[in-house]
Amino acid sequence: MKKLLVALVLVLTLVGFAAKYKIGVAIPAADHGWTGGMVWWAQYAIKQYQNDPDVEFYLVTAREPSEQIAQVQALLARGINALVINPYESAPLTPICVQAFRQGVYTVIVDRGINSEEYNVYIAGDNYMYGYLAGKYIAEKLKGKGNVVVIRGIPSTIDDERVKAFKDAIAPYPDLKIIAEQPGYWSREKAFEVMQTLLTKFPQIDAVWTGDDDMLHGVLIALRQAGRDKNIVLVGGACEKNIVKMIMDGHPLIEVDFTYPPNMIATAINLAVMGLKGQSLNGFYQKGIPRKITLSTETVTRQNAKDYYFPDSVF
Amino acid sequence: MRIKFRNFLGKYMIVLVLIGLMIFSGIITPAFLKPRNILNIFWQTSYVGIIAIGITFVMIAGGIDLSVGSMLALLGAFAITTSNKLGNGVGPTLVSILLTYALASLLGLGMGILTTKGKIPAFITTLGGMAIYRSLVLNFANGGVYMSFSRTFSSFGMKFVAGLPLPMIVFIAYAVLAYIVLDKTRFGRYVYAVGANETAAVYSAIKVDTIRTITYIISGVSVATSAILLSSMMASVSSSSTGSGFELDAIAAAVIGGTSLSGGKGTIFGTFFGALILGVVNNMLVMLNVAVYLQGMVKGLIIIAAVLLQNLRK
Question: Do the domain assignments include residue A291?
């Protein structure tokens, strides 16, 4: 009996060594801080497998949808076993993702969904709660009364959903007014410019919500320069490392942040490996990897900020 | 008298367009005309404005420079990195600024030589430059942000001198200097000659290639000026987003100001006000709280109308 077990283990290891999983990772190129973070985390996750002879990775980044399609085609030609993709845009990337799935490639879609149900796993951040929690925090912090400025990202469906959620959260407070809603295009410089202009227009601003932490940096500079960096509630989002550091050190204006983690790509890469190896998630009675995962938006405060501070990351 | 008046209008129409835009915005939102906001507009315009002045030289000489946006990020990142290495203090900061200008001149020289001696269309060389510079910036920061740790370096970008923001002063001084070079020197006349009729310029014993190359160096130096001011103010450069789209804004500013895309025509005066018109439009969109998705349309319509109005006078 014992001999049989040993033989079995031996056979399994041999089979395991023989099976080499090729995993393609396709993500947009870094065009602002957050996507830069995603590229960094993808490289990080891949590095964690460098001593695992079972898996081999091909990481590609694209500047536009057609480039990404071409990259995925090249990956499929290479004979990948799994595809982890953050589609540049939903519609144009749908056919190629579906094709991959139909060819039997284990397909993990990250964050931006495709217009089809033909995939193995879909993992995404929670845009609704990302906006909602920011709105709720500002409403409670201001006790339901005050002037709020919204500096949103690049106008897009993701951004629309967050802004809508933000408005839903402050809807119960009629005395909380959004006095301006302007795009800052997820850029420091642009957010600085917008905030500088709004500060001249409005003598009283009680809170500013920026679509992400990069823009919050720009707002901070504008406030400091105008000498109005007091008595104002500031909320960004997505936990850029320097903002998290400020929270950790007890910044007087920024007390909270909300996750929309770029390291979801690292989780997705792990899920692809686990899926290929036929592993299951801890705590689940069911086998396999869940098909749809929405990551929760976590609240970062001074107490837990150190768990969200990754000084080596680029975002 | 009539002809004189028409000439006058043709030349200064752009100023009237600018004033008209400002009155319009002022009526809708009085806050627009606050002195503070006018200063802000000058300030916000100065970064693209300085680059647009450099690009005016290139365009008048018949070239184009698409690399300015990526170059802005590269030079800003270079200035930050060197000043971080050299440390605090006025001396090290000056050294890092000088090094940035040196690199900028070198890059401009390279672009110029590739375009003239290499006989590659400027559109291609500078498009290549745009891709190469951006990719280098991304590579060295791994897609992240360059942060300034030198207090001296990050102090002057937001300085006020005599109640005016420093970038605005530099912008105006730079425009005056460029006006003198382009309008009052022999070099300036050569720039026009090269762009208007290359063959004629060659027969007039003008060193066409040298003149063209110098315009690219001027463009590089302009970008360096803007990069130093911007990276000092933000105390950072984002490898992915800083400067992206600046090339289009700078070219648009020049064209709104009457610079011809096919060379031989253009003025610093026009580019200066062209840049300001763009700045006023950007500011106006925020001041009037224009709906997010309609901003592009409003901006586009105003730009087209501004050029159309000037053409109607001719």
Answer: no
Cβ distance of A221 and B158 shorter than 8 Å = yes
Give mean pLDDT, residues A293-300. 95
> Looking at beta carbons, which residues of chain B come within 8 Å of A265?
none
B27-49: pLDDT as tens digits: 998 989 999 999 999 999 999 99
Please state the domain extents for chain B: 41-305
Domain containing A248 equals 127-258
Note whether A131 and A252 are same-domain residues. yes
One domain for residues A188 and A230: yes
Q: Does the predicted model carry a pTM greater than 0.95?
A: no
CATH topology of domain B41-305: ABC transporter involved in vitamin B12 uptake, BtuC (1.10.3470)
Q: Could you tell me the two tokens for A236?
A: 């960004």
Put simply, the answer to whether A200 touches B31 (Cβ < 8 Å) is: yes
Nearest to B314 by CA among B14, B1, B63, B33: B14
B38's tokens: 């006018």
Test B241 with A194 for CB contact under 8 angstroms. Answer: no
Better-predicted residue by pLDDT, B222 or A35 = B222
CB pairs under 8 A between A and B: 106
Sequence-separated (6 or more) residues with CB below 8 Å from residue A37: A240, A262, A263, A313, A314, A315, B143, B144
The Cα A294–Cα B171 span in angstroms is 49
A-facing residues of B in 231-290 (CB < 8 A) are 233-236, 238-242, 244, 282-283, 285-287, 289
Q: Which residue has the tokens 């804004």?
A: B249
- CATH number for the domain including A40? 3.40.50.2300
For residue A182, give the nearest of B36, B142, B286 by CB distance: B286
ipTM score for this prediction: 0.80
Give me the number of domains chain A comprises: 2
